[in-house]
Amino acid sequence: MPLIDYPAPIRELIVQMKSLPGLGPRSAERLVMWLMGRGAGRVGGLAKALGELQERVGICGECGFFLQSGDPCPLCDHPKRDRHLMCVVEAAADVLRLEGSRAFVGLYHVLGGKLSPLDNVTPSDLRIDDLLRRVRELEVTEVILALGADVEGEVTANYLADVLREGGVMVTRLAQGMPAGGGLDHVDELTIFQAMNGRRRMD
Amino acid sequence: MPLIDYPAPIRELIVQMKSLPGLGPRSAERLVMWLMGRGAGRVGGLAKALGELQERVGICGECGFFLQSGDPCPLCDHPKRDRHLMCVVEAAADVLRLEGSRAFVGLYHVLGGKLSPLDNVTPSDLRIDDLLRRVRELEVTEVILALGADVEGEVTANYLADVLREGGVMVTRLAQGMPAGGGLDHVDELTIFQAMNGRRRMD
């Protein structure tokens, strides 16, 4: 008697789902069973949304935030933003957290990660050359480091402060109002607002 | 200053993801951010797998298990299975749990749920008419009720035992080796094996 299993398309989707972050084998199977049953009407919408993500979303070559294909960058190309003030963040999602706090009106620079020798993340893996070029070209007067308060965030902040000060620009960082050990992802907007206002110069 | 948000395709995918069972707004956002970054190579595969699910998977009109379009049912059309023995389960996933225990070689019947007055699930919402027709047509001699040991499972088992016995067929159920309050989803294969072997007749 051969062992019965789901048809190949179901197995393939379970394989695809269970390797997504935060989904294990059991929750992936339950999700696919839901899509085969009560959620059948949602399969098309999900597939379409994934297709649109691939086709219509790009990344701004300057700041590193997301961009709808063909559109100008909502941050870099906004006429009212202060082009001499630049805020460095780890990830694109951090831009939304800072915008939500309404404490910052300058430009952003998404690093794409933080230095981590244990995970083999070195300065050349982050968008640091682009940062130095933009600071020079835009004649930025202050760079605000809005990195997480964990060990890798501290290491990255200290490294960036060193290379940026060599170029003669003032470097500040978010005030230590942020909870220790946490990234921008885990704090509320008021905390971000206070941290932005209390930022201190790195000497 | 307008509030910055993700481009529309990203927002749309977050909306789609966060309404899936087991995914909240935060985990949906993190998942989409992962797909925009390190997981970019996975977007196409996921969209394709969802499309295949929609196009190539159907449900067997007899047993209710999944079927690859165009193929015969791997259960109903298998020549070596005992066609006079029928096992009733709540959901298609339960078939795999029972097959994994290798304790059963008859046919299956997927009910598609269990009776639940609180959720407005009545006998007409389940595949009970199909079950009675198959039992009659196939001249089934024993129907094994492999339903969860929770309240709705008990109610469903008692209801089915009543209508099936009227037709003169023997009705058995899985032995109460199963943990109280749990469905087939939560037990290991050995427990299912013991429960199948110790099944008892309903009088």
UniProtKB/TrEMBL annotation, chains A, B:
The keyword Transmembrane does not apply. The keyword DNA damage applies. SMART domains: TOPRIM. GO terms for biological process: DNA recombination; DNA repair. It comes from the Bacteria. Keywords: DNA damage, DNA recombination, DNA repair, Metal-binding, Zinc, Zinc-finger. Belongs to the RecR family. This is Recombination protein RecR.
